[in-house]
Amino acid sequence: MFRNDENPRIEPLTNTGRRSWQPITSYNRPGASAMNILVLNSGSSSQKMSLYSLAEPLPATAPEPVWEGHLDWHDGRALIEVRAASGATHSEEARAATASDATPRLLDLLVTGDARGVSGKSEIACVGHRIVNGGAEYTQPAVVDAKLKAAIQAMAVFAPLHNRAGLEGIALIDQNFPGVRQIAVFDTGFHSHLPPAAAVYPGPFEWARQGIRRYGFHGINHQYCAERTAQLVGKDLRSLNLVTCHLGNGCSLAAIRNGRSIDTTMGFTPLEGLMMGTRSGSIDPAIVTFLMRERDMTADEIDLLLNKKSGLLGISGVSADMRQIIATMKQGNERAKLAFDIFVHRLQSGIGSMIASLGGIDALVFTAGIGEHSPDVRDAACANFAFLGVVLDAAKNSQAGGDSDISTGDSRVRVLVVRAQEDWSIARECRKLLR
């Protein structure tokens, strides 16, 4: 437990559980060619960290991290949990003004305590960051410098919560691990080669010149899932037409041909596209002008409404969590059923649109929280595609865990569940860049 004088803006509340284990300094001591890479996945109210010790050649499949840390912040309280590969765990709760104020404690647990990941800060060779929007200029992983920080800040206009959280993560590493190399990996990078017909909005052409275009998001995971699918089906990625469905609190689809994204549902911001946990997805833009003119709503009020008070939460009035939506729906709640039905309807429409962009499909892939853990959503999403040869195996679908094929043997389209591995993908890109 840390003292108030170590960080005056954080006050400890309780230690919610600690298990005594032997120190793990020998476990994570890298070999001559190994490199410890810490990955930060920063959110506005959360912080996720994963530590990988990577040597060449890189493993063909995603390894488990040698250390993981999670911080969830809500209403002035931060829940911090860490786990080391040895099995040692530690959790505590603390008061904090913001999630960023509590993050130094999470970094402290990386190097101290029974559940530490390394024995000292000097053992960290590199820190990788998930940056949501790199714009048109940054399409490949890049070493963080002053120019890159300015570019991330400039693109925060288009993804304010996400990019600013990424910048805060970079600043925290600057403060707590001074001098360590930092690398940004961009969620928009995988979609940077969208064909103009998919990337350019049908407004004034000046929009495209001003950078108002479809960028796409979740690209780190869409790319990983495409590569993993090729491994699972035993085929060359360049020979496959894939639709990947990233379904979590944020949702997006990608149409992938020859290993490249040719279409996606998110656009200028992560608000476009599918219905999501608290985001509306695509709506008639005239609704916005109507609310401004007839309801005197400000831009900030509308932004809050569409990003935080819509989607599953807005329709159901119950929750943004699909598990609670389904449970309440099965108890007879009509609004929860409507939320589920809208979600599935828009998901099916999006999948159909992606298949049309590809001209056919070899595999349909589900990933992220809902995609990996909701058999009901997967079953409903596939129900209308039997005419394409999509046939789910009901038993496999209900028991799916980890990476698995849930289609029948005679299904013409493979249906897979692939575990999201954004942190591993970022660590891998960092290791490649530092070769």
Strand line-up in the sheet with most strands: 1-6-5-4-3-2-7-9-8
The coarse silhouette is: globular
Helix-strand category: alpha+beta
Q: Tell me the span between the first and last alpha carbons.
A: 38 Å
Write the element-wise H/E pattern from the N-terminal end onward: EEEEEEHEEHHEHHHEEEHHHHHEHHHEEH
Percent of residues in beta strands: 15-25%
The top-level CATH class of the largest domain is: Alpha Beta
CATH topology of the largest domain: Nucleotidyltransferase, domain 5
Mean pLDDT: 88
CATH architecture of the largest domain: 2-Layer Sandwich
Number of domains: 2
Estimated helix fraction: 25-40%
Largest sheet properties:
9 strands, mixed
User: Which segments are poorly predicted (pLDDT under 50) over 5 or more consecutive residues?
Assistant: 1-32
Can you characterise this structure?
Helix content is 36%, strand content 22%. It has helices spanning 99-111, 146-155, 160-176, 196-199, 205-209, 219-233, 286-294, 299-308, 311-316, 322-330, 334-358, 368-373, 375-382, 394-399, 422-433; strands at residues 10-18, 35-42, 46-54, 67-74, 77-84, 89-96, 126-131, 142-143, 181-186, 241-247, 251-257, 260-264, 363-367, 404-405, 414-417. The strands form 2 sheets. A 9-stranded mixed β-sheet has the order 1-6-5-4-3-2-7-9-8, sandwiched between helices. Strand 2 (35-42) and strand 3 form a beta hairpin. Helix 2 runs antiparallel to helix 3 (160-176), helix 10 (322-330) packs across helix 11 (334-358) and helix 11 packs across helix 13 (375-382).
